[in-house]
């Protein structure tokens, strides 16, 4: 096993909204823990609680994002929420598939690609709207 984190956080992944950036780092950190536990041969007694933490963290994060997008009148909020719903669904299905087929790499790879892609391609689109909201005195 090598000594490198599965996903190395880069400041290039910051979208400039502190609460969102902080939560994104937390999600990536939880995925790294999941990867570490799998690579070091831990069983379901630690993998399952880690998946539960990840799911709950993602839920809190999406609620934060969606509330801010709503308040900022982000025009593409509906499409963005659909992407969130699909991620939740796919993560659930893949974690069932991964545990019944003993194939953890499939879920780790999916989580890594989805999160880095989503942050850098989709979340960056709402960033200017949220920045404007958070900078305004009315918030
Ligand atoms: Fe998002």
Show the helix and strand layout.
Layout (H helix, E strand, L loop, with lengths): L17 H22 L4 H28 L5 H25 L2 H32 L4
Helix pairs in contact: 1-2, 1-4, 2-3, 3-4
The structure holds fe (ii) ion.
The DSSP helix count reads 4
* Ligand kinds: fe (ii) ion
What's the rounded overall pLDDT mean? 94
Any idea what the shape is? elongated
CATH architecture: Up-down Bundle
Strand tally is 0
Low-confidence runs of at least 5 consecutive residues? none
For the biggest sheet, the summary is: none
The CATH C-level class name: Mainly Alpha
CATH superfamily: Hemerythrin-like
Rg is 16 Å
What is the helix content? over 70%
Order of helices and strands: HHHH
Q: Return the structural class.
A: mainly alpha
What is CATH's topology name? Answer: Four Helix Bundle (Hemerythrin (Met), subunit A)
Description:
By secondary structure, this protein is mostly helical. It has one domain: Four Helix Bundle (Hemerythrin (Met), subunit A) (Up-down Bundle). It is built from four helices and no strands. Helix 1 (18-39) packs antiparallel against helix 2 (44-71), helix 2 packs antiparallel against helix 3 and helix 3 packs antiparallel against helix 4 (104-135). The longest helix has 32 residues, at 104-135. The chain is elongated, with a radius of gyration of 16 Å. The N and C termini lie far apart (47 Å). It binds fe (ii) ion. Fe (ii) ion binds at residues 65, 80, 84, 118, 122-123.
Q: Keyphrases for this structure?
A:
139 residues; mainly alpha; elongated; metal ion binding; 0% strand; single chain
């Amino acid at each position: 096993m090598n000594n490198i984190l599965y996903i190395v956080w880069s400041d290039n992944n910051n979208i400039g909204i502190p609460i969102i950036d902080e939560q994104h780092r937390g999600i990536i950190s939880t995925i790294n823990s999941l990867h570490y536990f799998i690579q070091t041969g831990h069983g379901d007694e630690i993998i399952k609680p880690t998946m539960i933490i990840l799911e709950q963290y993602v839920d809190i994060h999406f609620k934060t994002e969606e509330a801010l997008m709503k308040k900022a009148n982000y025009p593409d909020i509906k499409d963005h929420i659909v992407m969130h719903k699909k991620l939740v669904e796919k993560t659930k299905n893949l974690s069932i598939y991964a545990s019944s087929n003993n194939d953890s790499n499939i879920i780790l790879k999916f989580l890594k690609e989805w999160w880095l892609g989503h942050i850098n391609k989709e979340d960056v689109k709402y960033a200017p709207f949220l920045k404007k909201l958070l900078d305004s005195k009315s918030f």
